[in-house]
Amino acid sequence: MLNQKMRKTALVWSLVALGACAIMNFYFYSLEGARGMYVWYNTALFQALIVMGLIPIGLVILTFPLEKLKEKLPSTILRWVSIVASVLVTLVSVGLLAFLIAGPRLGDIEPAKLNLINPANPIVAQAALGEPTISSGKANDSSAVSGAASTKNPRPQAASGEAQAPGSTKSTTAEPRLRLSFSSDAHWGADTSNASARTEILQGISAHKPDAFFFLGDMTEYGFQAMHWNLALGDLEALIPNVPFRPVMGNHDALFGGQYNYKRIFFPKGFSSDSGSPYFYSIDAGAARIIVLDMPWGTEQFGKRQHDWLEATLKNSDPKVPIIVVSHSYYYASGYRDPKTGKPWYDNYETIPAVTPLFEKYGVDLVISGHNHYQEFLQHNGVSYAIIGAMGGISDPPPTYQSPASKWMAVATFGWLDVDVQNNELVLTFRNEKGEALHTELVAYK
What's the structural domain count of the chain? Predict the structure, then answer.
């Protein structure tokens, strides 16, 4: 009788442990970037967290054949081990679930005055208003304008340009129709991040006065820590309070529920998007269509919903304006193989087959990403790619692999990318942290 009661107790506890483990894992892998973390850092720890719920019930099952023995001690000991394991697994699962839910919500985010771009509203270039190209300092609150529906055909791209001296240009001197700036991977909160480079870059962007500045992810080192967001917000408020600003979420920003902090800071109440998501959407910039994709690591977030939305958006884009796609994770890129995981941090084996065929089919003109801590310009099948993960995060090691698509690259440099939209071309200027031009490219779009 006692043995049967213990058998029932062990079975109940093992089911509780299994359920707690399943709920914790389900919640964790529903978070932005969690699946990517597993794919790119598939360590024994992540595997253990998935299978640990099976251990107690497995031990219980092993006791069933032992019941036939005259000696009941082996089955009794194994059931006690199962109960202890069940308690431990339950405590670990509940603790991790509490951390994932409460962790990013417990810290106080200090409010910052920023000129955030609402993705639902168009970016209005100062040049289009007949005014000097300066930021207004007011929230972007104009009504959205949709592009005309038309299938876009790939356009020929300009050949690679030569490096330019600071202040020089290869293009027309006419006022650009739209001035955009991009950078990525600042990693506020990381001891290895270069704070002086971050400051100089933000000061340079502020002086440049773009119509919009897109930060392409990894603003923080750990997105679940409010302190890291506060460090970033303090600098952004002090250095670019009037620059129209739109950040993209990176894999570090998304860590362990960091999406909650990202959303409450950069997608506040009243903001909306054409996709219904705060992580991917398109923005009408008048002289260009800007498409933001949700790719913290690779294609782990690129499900059917985002794929179908992207294809429909590309298909219906106005063929008279260039299409600029931005995301955190890259596509074609040079790089190296991670010595710890063996994963290739270059030509992305996930994003290239899943996404670039859409870029080529619908004539995307320029794709800008971060994630790799380099500056690089590449071209493949009529599409131009720029890597600009250079806003202060520790520089990646010298590349051991050069992408066949690569045209120019700068290693161990900090800086940002300016993109001026002219009548028939995009003028790309890669800059160092002091604002000096390192390299210029022209990308024709008509």
Answer: 2
